[in-house]
């Protein structure tokens, strides 16, 4: 029982660290969010903090996993239907513009993860596969219904959507005037489906007539 209780406390502390780390990075930015600052936020020494993750690199990978978990819960990213998936994805992109530190961390890790020995390598492979699977399924469904072009294979379109989304993050980090969500939404529109039915996507005073 003691071991089980100790394990549960360890899991709870780990979750507290990740939640706090996301908040610190979102508030202070990636470059200012040192391991020391994250440790201070949860009342641990740097060594005590890394005890839960093994290394700074693994800590950052787990922060990204936590970010994905939070986004999935808050923005309904697990829908396999096209319009809900589209709307949820655009909401995430809009939210990302409010947390530049998290976007910078993601982009830096994505580059470093090209090294197969990097702790983030498997995370990005798995994450990319899950996103493409979701996109491919919903796009194929729309293609069968004749609402999205079938001139390009659904899986290829899914890869294009993912590539544009990742690329827009890099452009936005260089120029904060770039509207990431509007650009990605324009690509969805080019595919042929109805515009996303979200309040944030419609100009003030207007209502969307998109089909749900």
UniProtKB/TrEMBL annotation:
Residues of the signal peptide: none
Domain of life: Bacteria
Portion annotated as DNA-binding: 34-53
Keyword line: DNA-binding, Transcription, Transcription regulation
Domain HTH tetR-type: 11-71
Annotated PROSITE patterns: HTH_TETR_2
Keyword presence, Kinase: no
UniProt protein name: TetR/AcrR family transcriptional regulator
């Amino acid at each position: 029982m003691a071991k089980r209780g100790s394990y549960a406390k360890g899991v709870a502390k780990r979750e507290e660290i990740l939640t706090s780390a996301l908040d610190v990075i979102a508030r202070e930015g990636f470059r200012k969010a040192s391991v020391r600052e994250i440790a201070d936020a949860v009342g641990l020494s740097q060594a005590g903090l890394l005890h839960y993750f093994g290394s700074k690199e693994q800590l950052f990978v787990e922060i990204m996993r936590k970010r994905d978990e939070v986004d999935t819960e808050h923005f309904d990213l697990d829908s396999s239907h096209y319009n809900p998936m589209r709307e949820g994805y655009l909401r995430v992109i809009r939210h990302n513009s409010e947390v530049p530190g998290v976007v910078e961390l993601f982009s830096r890790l994505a580059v470093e993860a090209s090294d197969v020995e990097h702790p983030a390598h498997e995370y990005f492979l798995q994450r990319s596969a899950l996103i493409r699977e979701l996109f491919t399924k919903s796009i194929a469904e729309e293609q069968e219904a004749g609402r999205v072009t079938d001139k390009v294979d659904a899986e290829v379109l899914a890869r294009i959507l993912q590539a544009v989304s990742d690329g827009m993050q890099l452009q936005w980090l260089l120029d904060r005037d770039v509207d990431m969500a509007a650009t990605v939404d324009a690509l969805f529109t080019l595919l042929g489906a109805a515009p996303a039915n979200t309040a944030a996507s419609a100009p003030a005073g207007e209502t969307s007539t998109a089909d749900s």
